[in-house]
Amino acid sequence: MMFKKTLAIALTGLLLMATNFGAQPVRADTIEDAQLAGKARVSILKIGTGQKARVEVKLRDNTRLKGYVSEVGADTFTVTDAKTGASSTVAYNNVAQVKKSGNGFSTMTKVLIGSAVAAAVIITLVIVKPALCDGGAQTRGPC
User: Lower CB density within 10 Å: C or N end of the chain?
Assistant: First the structure.
């Protein structure tokens, strides 16, 4: 009888110790996590800092940050919202994805597209229209 009582107390103690020190949810640092943090660090360093270094950052908890990179550290970087001025310091190991955010086409791309459109209009007026109109003989179409 005494043995059963002692065994029950011992098992109860072990059970309490197991719940206190045992399975606690922890996120292990895996090689994949380290690689993801390394990619985020490289992306941020490529983008640089300043108001022209605009980014969109998706964190592992699916929150998204938009703004510019105002500060870069060894383990963290700071994203500042351009509209509100609010800053968020982000650890590289909390980043799921980094995208460079821009406001559309670069100035050079806009100039090239405009030049191409202007060239197409000039070619149409100078070459295509006279060929189609045949000196005014046709009365239909673009003449």
Answer: N
